[in-house]
Amino acid sequence: MKVKPHRPYTAEYDNGQSAPNLLVYLLWLLVHKLVTIVEQLMQSLRQPFFSKRIRIKAHQYAEHQQQQLPAPVSKLSKVPKHLVVLLGPEPPLYRQLAQFIFWSLAAEIEYVSFYDHNGTIKRNCEEVKRCVREAPVEGKDRIVWLERSGSGAEADDSPRQPVGSGRTVVVGFLSPEDGKQGLVSLSRSIGESVRRRDLYAADVSIELLDSRLQAALGAVPDPDLALYFGDVCSTYGLLPWQIRLTEFLPLGTRLRDSTEREFVRCLHRYAKCEQRLGT
């Protein structure tokens, strides 16, 4: 019997080609990691840190942990007027969410909303408020909570927040019922108005829908920027009508890992975005 010469085993694909060498694969991963680190380092060196311009007095959390807030974004060409923090499958961390309120206040963002597709944040919005009250804002700045009732939404000025001529951020909580379900309810309402002849069909327009949807959300403008976590960019049913021009940017892999530096980086990326609308 003729014995075939021994040769080392190599995995093969269905097309007969040999699998890539393990050493080459590891070297490729190492080069990719080094390039990523260099890019992040160069980006951090190019970005001006807010803390180098104006320092805001640190606030205390329940466990007395000090954190510096970012200074106003005076060097950026634009700042989002309405920011949405979008959660996917991960559970909300209310103390971490509260940080976005302070960061947005310091960055002079006027509206901040929190959304998750289960409605957990909206049902437990008092937890976010409690975390904010444990770290009151400084000076004349104030935080206004947007409370929604059956007839719409109204601003509820927390008595623990200082009132004055300083910066103001309006904080709201969104759930799927404010998105597709809200559109369905509005469509039914308009249909009933047309049937009763309180409204003519010719009067139904995009402007009418925009105005009524904004009224239902407390006259809050459409979101300019939505921050999400992880590698998957999904709206999870967030306000399908109002996000036509919203920029979606990733902010780290997990909510618990979000930092002021990453928040600043996203604001710089948003400032560089150009919207080109068709005619």
From TrEMBL:
Q: Where are the transmembrane segments?
A: 22-42
Identify the keywords attached in UniProt to this record, alphabetized: Endoplasmic reticulum, Magnesium, Membrane, Transferase, Transmembrane, Transmembrane helix
Recall the GO molecular function terms of this protein's record: ditrans,polycis-polyprenyl diphosphate synthase [(2E,6E)-farnesyl diphosphate specific] activity
Name the cofactor(s): Mg(2+)
What's the domain of life for this entry?
A: Eukaryota
Listed pathway(s): Protein modification; protein glycosylation
GO CC annotation, single? dehydrodolichyl diphosphate synthase complex
List the catalytic activities from the record. Answer: n isopentenyl diphosphate + (2E,6E)-farnesyl diphosphate = a di-trans,poly-cis-polyprenyl diphosphate + n diphosphate
Gene3D superfamilies assigned to the protein according to its UniProt record, in alphabetical order: Decaprenyl diphosphate synthase-like (3.40.1180.10)
The EC category is transferase
InterPro entries attached here?
Answer: Nus1/NgBR, UPP_synth-like_sf
E.C. number: 2.5.1.87
- PANTHER family assigned to the protein according to its UniProt record, in alphabetical order: DEHYDRODOLICHYL DIPHOSPHATE SYNTHASE COMPLEX SUBUNIT NUS1
Family the entry assigns: Belongs to the UPP synthase family.
- Official protein name in the record: ditrans,polycis-polyprenyl diphosphate synthase [(2E,6E)-farnesyldiphosphate specific]
Tell me the organism.
Answer: Anopheles coluzzii
